[in-house]
UniProtKB/TrEMBL annotation:
Annotated ranges, domain SusE outer membrane protein: 31-122
Alphabetical list of InterPro entries matching this protein: SusE
UniProt keywords, alphabetically: Signal
Gene3D superfamilies: 2.60.40.3620
Organism: Psychroflexus planctonicus
Signal peptide range: 1-22
Protein name (Swiss-Prot/TrEMBL): SusE outer membrane protein domain-containing protein
């Protein structure tokens, strides 16, 4: 009798286990038939400048919101491009696929896309291979155009007859810098200038506004270490062009944002501390901003500072003096200085015991006794920061 009862109990347990396994095997997530449209979260620039010198840099990091498919399952994303923006089956290229909600596109990739649609950074030629000029005798180029992007999301193999959602088409305006012919000046990069009542310029957008220094290895990264006011005068923003209010950078919901002239001005950055020295770091690609207090206890104040070298009018035999900022004694500038092809350095008190140099042109971070700075002939506004040895040359048009 006991054996029969044991057999019945065992059979009952096996039956329950089999049914449970069967139910698990048949489990399916129910997805929504029409998920919400996926949307980009970027603050796109009004124009993206492409150059061979910056080909390895990121041009843009495409960010998007996670769409609601009505099921807790992984989503596949595809960043797509189309030469003419039609996105037909035959005219769509998947630029990247990922399970993340972001993809970076390099300058090199944008150059390839620009070239594929017929853009070029060289002068247009006629059927006979001769260079083309306009009615004013200026060279004709086909270096400006539009690139088209969208992001598509689906569930792939995670659901039968997977629904998908596709973003609106994002138009990216590009300008491919003209190839150097050996006669042109330096390549033009984007600059950022301080404006606001926490800065030397106050809220004047054309008041010799101090520039941030661009990372020579990454044109999207900028830094500045210097004096900021606090208290009731604690706000500032960043401008790309002195004398113009747009493009204007600030904060939107705590995230770095820009008004390129087609939107709404962002909120100001705020110095929450007292007046003093701070380091700000800006990354336009990752849209991040950071401001930290800087210890000034070991700083040296110099009575004079100058540029010197074969690229300057006085060569290596004389100093061209820079002007010390009356707002911040560690910031030095010289405006409208003409330089020749060659090299130069910064030095204090006209003495070689205190000199700064680096190997990168246009912008960089000089070290004490460092190498000569390479210079391309042109007219520049030059800023030097004796706190960290940073410098930036701003071409004057």
């Amino acid at each position: 009798m006991k054996n029969k009862i044991s057999i019945l109990i065992t059979a009952f347990i096996l039956s329950i286990s089999f049914n449970a396994c069967t139910d698990d095997d048949n489990l399916r997530f129910q997805t929504v038939e029409s998920p919400e449209q996926i949307t980009f979260l970027n603050n796109f620039l009004s124009e993206y400048v492409l150059s061979e010198e910056t080909a390895s840099n990121n041009a843009e990091r495409f960010l998007w919101a996670t769409p609601d498919f009505g099921a807790p399952t992984a989503v596949n994303y595809f960043l797509e491009t189309s030469p003419d923006g039609t996105f037909t089956e035959e005219n769509t290229e998947v630029l990247a696929s990922t399970s993340e909600t972001q993809v970076s596109v390099s300058v090199s990739q944008m150059i390839d896309l620009a070239e594929a649609k017929g853009l070029s950074n060289e002068q247009v030629e006629n059927e006979d291979g001769e260079p083309v000029f306009d009615e004013n005798g200026d060279p004709v180029y086909n270096n400006i155009g539009e690139l088209f992007f969208r992001v598509r999301a689906d569930l792939g193999d995670n659901a039968e007859n997977s629904p998908e959602t596709t973003s609106a088409i994002q138009v990216i305006n590009v300008r491919w810098l003209i190839a150097s012919t050996g006669e042109e000046g330096p390549v033009s990069f984007r600059n950022l200038f301080l404006v606001g009542n926490a800065t030397a310029a106050d809220w004047n957008n054309d008041n010799n506004n101090m520039p941030l220094v661009r990372n020579p290895e990454n044109e999207d990264q900028y830094t500045f270490t210097g004096k900021f006011l606090g208290g009731d005068t604690n706000e500032f923003k960043l401008l790309e062009v002195r004398g113009q209010w747009q493009p204007q950078w600030g904060l939107s919901d705590g995230t770095l944002a820009v008004n390129d002239g087609t939107g709404t001005d962002p909120d100001a950055f705020v110095n929450d501390g007292e007046a003093g020295y701070y380091t700000i770091e800006v990354d336009l690609d990752s849209t991040t901003f950071e401001m930290t207090a800087f210890d000034t206890s070991d700083l040296t104040t110099y009575p004079s500072l100058s540029i010197i070298g074969e690229a300057t009018a006085l060569g290596w035999d004389g100093d061209t003096e820079m002007t010390q900022s009356s707002f911040d004694e560690h910031q030095w500038f010289i405006t409208g200085v003409e330089l020749a092809d060659g090299e130069m350095k910064f030095r204090a008190t006209g003495n070689w015991d205190i000199n700064w140099g680096a190997s990168t042109p246009i912008s960089g971070f000089g070290t004490m006794g460092g190498p000569n700075i390479p210079v391309t002939a042109g007219t520049y506004d030059i800023w030097f920061n004796d706190i960290d040895g940073s410098y930036i040359f701003i071409p004057v048009e």
